[in-house]
UniProtKB/TrEMBL annotation:
Domain of life: Bacteria
Protein name: Type II secretion system protein
Species of the source: Rubritalea spongiae
Upper lineage: Bacteria, Pseudomonadati, Verrucomicrobiota, Verrucomicrobiia, Verrucomicrobiales
Keyword Membrane: yes
One Pfam family of this chain: N_methyl
Annotated InterPro entries: N_methyl_site, Pilin-like
Keywords noted in UniProt: Membrane, Transmembrane, Transmembrane helix
Transmembrane annotation, as ranges: 32-54
Length: 182
């Protein structure tokens, strides 16, 4: 048994150190396998972190798009129910709805605004001739009108950041998302 231990120790010294002379572990360095495994672990961690940040950006755009769609439907219903024109006001910082021609009492009531993240830009398309119009901080707000009957202008909104884009086309009769039949 003692001979087996001596042989294994000698084999370890020869295979690991490439020399039969004793060397200290701190002089040995790293093997290629250790470096590759470390690189794989770092790559996996960086990849999962990148997916987390990309996913959160997508979620912010999807949330803003979904909330704007709900706001459009509620605004259409309010216009029909109250037989009164409404508007959805879109700025680079928020989106909200309010009745047109507010009187003093209504102006004091607060409206719920949908906040827009600072890295998200909103563009609108009314028709192909004018093309996409980006809403910036310096612009006056874009006003999307709903008549007393609930009809609205046909509109396409684009929500985008550096990573994701979401376009929503609203139907003028339902203020709902227009589904492409192609």
């Amino acid at each position: 048994m003692a001979n087996l231990g001596v042989m294994m120790t000698l084999a370890h010294k020869i295979l690991c150190n490439n020399s039969p002379s004793p060397r200290h572990d701190f002089q040995r360095g790293f093997t290629l396998l250790e470096i590759v495994i470390t690189m794989v672990i770092i790559s996996v961690l960086l990849g999962s972190a990148a997916l987390f940040f990309v996913g959160s950006s997508d979620e912010a755009i999807e949330k803003l798009s979904r909330e704007t769609q709900l706001l459009a439907k509620k605004t259409m219903r309010s216009a029909k129910d109250q037989q009164r024109a409404y508007s959805i006001i879109i700025t680079s910082k928020s989106v909200w709805a309010e009745p047109e021609m507010l009187n003093l009492e209504e102006a004091e009531t607060s409206t719920i605004a949908i906040p827009v993240d600072k890295d998200i830009t909103i563009s609108y398309l009314l028709d192909e001739e004018t093309g996409w119009q980006r809403i910036t901080n310096n612009d006056s707000p874009f006003v999307w009108s709903f008549s007393q009957t609930g009809l609205c202008e046909p509109l396409t909104l684009r929500f985008e950041n550096n990573i994701a884009v979401d376009e929503v086309t609203f139907h003028p009769l339902t203020a709902g998302k227009l589904i492409d039949e192609n």
